[in-house]
Automatic annotation (TrEMBL):
<comment type="function">
    <text>Removes the phosphate from trehalose 6-phosphate to produce free trehalose.</text>
</comment>
<comment type="pathway">
    <text>Glycan biosynthesis; trehalose biosynthesis.</text>
</comment>
<comment type="similarity">
    <text>Belongs to the trehalose phosphatase family.</text>
</comment>
<dbReference type="GO" id="GO:0004805">
    <property type="term" value="F:trehalose-phosphatase activity"/>
</dbReference>
<keyword id="KW-0378">Hydrolase</keyword>
<dbReference type="Pfam" id="PF02358">
    <property type="entry name" value="Trehalose_PPase"/>
</dbReference>
<keyword id="KW-0460">Magnesium</keyword>
<dbReference type="InterPro" id="IPR023214">
    <property type="entry name" value="HAD_sf"/>
</dbReference>
<dbReference type="InterPro" id="IPR006379">
    <property type="entry name" value="HAD-SF_hydro_IIB"/>
</dbReference>
<dbReference type="InterPro" id="IPR044651">
    <property type="entry name" value="OTSB-like"/>
</dbReference>
<protein>
    <recommendedName>
        <fullName>Trehalose 6-phosphate phosphatase</fullName>
        <ecNumber>3.1.3.12</ecNumber>
    </recommendedName>
</protein>
<keyword id="KW-0479">Metal-binding</keyword>
<dbReference type="GO" id="GO:0000287">
    <property type="term" value="F:magnesium ion binding"/>
</dbReference>
<dbReference type="GO" id="GO:0005992">
    <property type="term" value="P:trehalose biosynthetic process"/>
</dbReference>
<dbReference type="InterPro" id="IPR003337">
    <property type="entry name" value="Trehalose_PPase"/>
</dbReference>
<dbReference type="InterPro" id="IPR036412">
    <property type="entry name" value="HAD-like_sf"/>
</dbReference>
Length: 267
């Protein structure tokens, strides 16, 4: 069994200007909800991102959501981000990249997926145009059905799609997409290059990003108590918000460690 406190609490030893921050969204900056549309970004996150912007400290959002969905959630159209697990990227200068993928394969898989799930109305399908998610949060007893369906389709189109498992979701994502590759590309871009990366995520989808950041000798922060390759840990979304508050308070006070109280692990 994993020990929640086996990994250290993330205390950044240098001034924040030395770092670049990269965040997963759902389960990290915001609590998980039954549907993505119910998720809201709270004031602490909004203030922290504004705090980074004011100090010209680079940050990016790395998500399974599409960039369009990220823009809607954050009420912005210029935040650097990677959507659909890295299949699409928008850099700080506004330049965008998107993985090339066979359009006919995408169309065929979507039709097959709808047909396969027709018997299970409790499964919720999400079409991200180049990626398809099967959500079973409302019907966890259908997890095996969702996973078998995704795996079967991935076997039919192995050069186009791979299965990505997550919390109460499995997804058919472009085979060449990963959050780790997205982090590597983002960190090589002019706005991020030369900084020490800090990546915060909660899910198995974030593990490739953790490993990429570890290779860069950055800070990889796991939210939750599952096994992980991350080097640091926070307990939950509320703990993430407390940590962000502590970073802002410490910076305002001219400190290099979290503000008093923010450096304590939750009991």
């Amino acid at each position: 069994m994993s020990d929640l406190f086996a990994l250290p609490y993330p205390v950044l030893p240098h001034e924040l200007s030395r770092y670049a921050f990269l965040f997963d969204i759902d389960g990290t900056l915001a609590g998980l909800r039954p549907t993505p549309g119910e998720v809201q970004i709270n004031d602490t996150v909004t203030r922290f991102l504004a705090f980074l912007s004011q100090r010209r400290i680079p940050f990016a959002l790395i998500s399974g959501r599409s960039i369009l969905d990220i823009d809607t959630l954050f009420l912005s159209h210029d935040v650097p981000c990677a959507g659909v697990h890295g299949a699409e990227i928008r850099y700080a200068d506004g330049k965008c990249e998107r993985l090339a993928i066979c359009g006919s394969d995408v169309a065929h898989v979507w039709e097959r997926l709808k047909l396969a799930c027709m018997r299970y109305p409790a499964l919720r399908l999400e079409n991200k145009l180049i990626s398809f998610a099967i959500h079973f949060r409302d019907a966890p007893e259908l997890a095996a059905v969702a996973m078998w369906t995704a795996a079967s389709l991935a076997e039919l189109y192995p050069d186009t799609f791979a299965v990505q498992h997550g919390k109460f979701v499995c997804e058919l994502r472009p085979v060449k997409a990963s959050k780790g590759a997205a982090v590597e590309k983002m960190m090589m871009s002019p706005a991020f290059c030369g900084r020490t990366p800090v990546y915060v995520g909660d899910d198995i989808t974030d593990e490739t990003a953790f490993r990429a950041v570890n290779e860069m000798e950055g800070f990889s922060v796991k939210v939750g108590d599952e096994e992980t390759s991350a080097t640091h840990r926070l307990k939950d979304v509320c703990d993430v918000h407390r940590w962000l508050d502590g970073l802002m308070a410490s910076a305002a006070a001219g400190c290099r460690v979290p503000a008093q109280g923010a450096d304590k692990r939750p009991s």
